[in-house]
Amino acid sequence: MSNLAVRIIDLSVFHNRQPTLEDITLNIQAGSFVGVLGPNGAGKSTLLKVILGLIRPDKGEVYVFGEPPLRLRRNKHLIGYLPQRPLNNPHFPVTVLDVVLMGRYGLLGLGRRPSRRDKEIALNLLKQVGMASRAHRAIGDLSGGEQQRVFIARALSVEPKLLILDEPTISLDACAQDELYDLIRGLQEQMELTVIMVSHDIGAISEHVGDIVCLNRRIYLHQAPPIGRLGLEKTFGCSVEYLFHGQIPHRVVRIHDE
Amino acid sequence: MMSEWLSPGFMQNALVGGLLVSFVCGLLSVFIVLRRMAFVGAGVAHSAFGGVALGFLLQVDPFWTGLFFSILVAFLIEGVQSRGRIEEDTAIGIFFAAAMALGVLFLHFSRTYNVDIFGVLFGNILAIGPTQLLQVGAVAVIVLAFILFFFKELVFISFDEEMAWVCGTPVKALRYLLLAVLALVIIVSIYLVGIVLVSALLVIPAAVARNLTHHIRSMILVSTGVAVGATLAGLELSYIIDLPSGATIVILLSLLFFGATLWGRRR
């Protein structure tokens, strides 16, 4: 039990009386790299927000490292999070270093300024994502791929054990996408993180992650291995075209009986 | 010239009051602009009219009734929009009109014709007395302490509220605190420029600074400088050529904004 990063039991979330997530039961092992796959509107972001505590479930229970998300946050055991659109205001007058330091604010507490140590941590993270040379540039001056790296550094600056990424590559070209996936993979291994990454990019996700959860309001499970065309078609609700990059790795969470 | 201008006691009060009010407006202005709260500011300012008129009716200091009304309306707007049923700008439009309408009724019932309604609407800093000066001073201390203490959190929630929450910042409490501070600043700004013109002091200084700076720290310095400079210059100008002081200050601020926009384009 203690090696579970996320434990979701019988979860349902409703939006305007319509279910966005229904009867989700899911365990994610600590240290795993899980891809959440599903079409638009499948509830992928909602699932992430429930794990983060941003959305309270209408039914069911959620535990992150054995604690409900709100208690986890109160105890300052924070989750690293890269939202889908991390820069709402591209002209916001702060530097790259300021942005990464923001992740430290909650740990610092009210009324305290970032110390030299916080700055060292932030600069070190920027180095790890390859953005140290940009530290004093305005955040809006960076390219999309560079910004994503900075926001990953911010997500890591809360000293998380769990990293949640919502469509991290959505606005990037193919080359920058591959680089970003490699970076995340490297960070995951190096920092012994549990990573949950949402995407609707089947090819990319199957190539880079350890396990796949297929989500379309419910969780679709399938026989192992490999994830067959049928399994994906069930998730996406239509026929799916995809290319194999070797065998698609995935994990059976529970055999479903539909 | 300068010494003559400084000599009468009421002018000294006006200068000190104007200086303090413009200082807090310049500071807060940065967060109003970055958080896109300009309409909230205008709405809360207008709803203060209901409170001020209630003060006239009950014959108590309009500072307190005005403050009560603007905090109440600010919290109502926040409460309604956070439930997600009504858009924020719709809520503002409804509440500030209702509060102003209440103000008109209060004035009607108070039947006092010796109150300076024009001063409430457009400012009359020359009428500021020791009590008002004390209020302005207290507000300045509170606002400065608030911004110094919560600076990093205010920047974070202005940048990205959802992320700030995930990183452990008490977002909801800060939103309400910021609204209460906004109401405080608005109430004392009414002495300087009046209900109708308050939003100029809350928005223009940071809008000017935004055109001229690239970092939030320099933005705050420039914004505060612009607010204080325009206020002192406006007071002097209005004294020398006998103009309404509040409107003069706002015109100067607007000219600065156009100048800064052109300057920003050139570069």
Write the layout of secondary structure elements.
The complex is a heterodimer of chains A (258) and B (267).
Chain A: E1 4-15, E2 18-29, E3 33-37, H1 44-52, E4 59-64, H2 69-74, E5 80-82, H3 96-108, H4 116-128, H5 144-156, E6 162-166, H6 174-191, E7 194-199, H7 202-208, E8 211-216, E9 218-220, H8 229-236
Parallel strand pairs in A: 3-7, 3-8, 5-6, 6-7
Antiparallel strand pairs in A: 1-2, 1-4, 8-9
Helix pairs in contact in A: 3-4, 3-5, 4-5
Chain B: H1 2-6, H2 9-34, H3 38-58, H4 62-82, H5 88-110, H6 117-122, H7 130-149, H8 151-159, H9 161-166, H10 171-193, H11 198-212, H12 216-240, H13 245-266
Helix pairs in contact in B: 2-7, 2-10, 2-11, 2-12, 3-4, 3-5, 3-10, 3-11, 4-5, 4-10, 7-10, 10-11, 11-12, 11-13, 12-13
Helix percent of chain A reads 25-40%
Percent range for β-strand residues of chain A: 15-25%
Question: How far apart, in Å, are the first and last alpha carbons of chain A?
Answer: 28 Å
Oligomer: heterodimer
Largest interface: A-B, 30 and 25 residues
- Radius of gyration of chain B (CA) equals 18 Å
In the predicted model, the low-confidence regions of chain B spanning at least 5 consecutive residues are none
Write the element-wise H/E pattern of chain B from the N-terminal end onward.
HHHHHHHHHHHHH
Tell me the strand percentage band of chain B.
under 5%
Mean pLDDT of chain A: 82
Q: Total number of β-strand segments of chain B? A: 0
Class derived from helix and strand content of chain A: alpha/beta
In DSSP terms (H or I, runs of 4 or more residues), the helix count of chain A works out at 8
The geometry of chain A reads as: globular
Radius of gyration of chain A (Å): 18 Å
Give the helix tally of chain B.
13
Structural class per helix/strand content of chain B? mainly alpha
Q: Give me the strand/helix succession of chain A.
A: EEEHEHEHHHEHEHEEH
- Unreliable spans of chain A are 222-226, 238-258
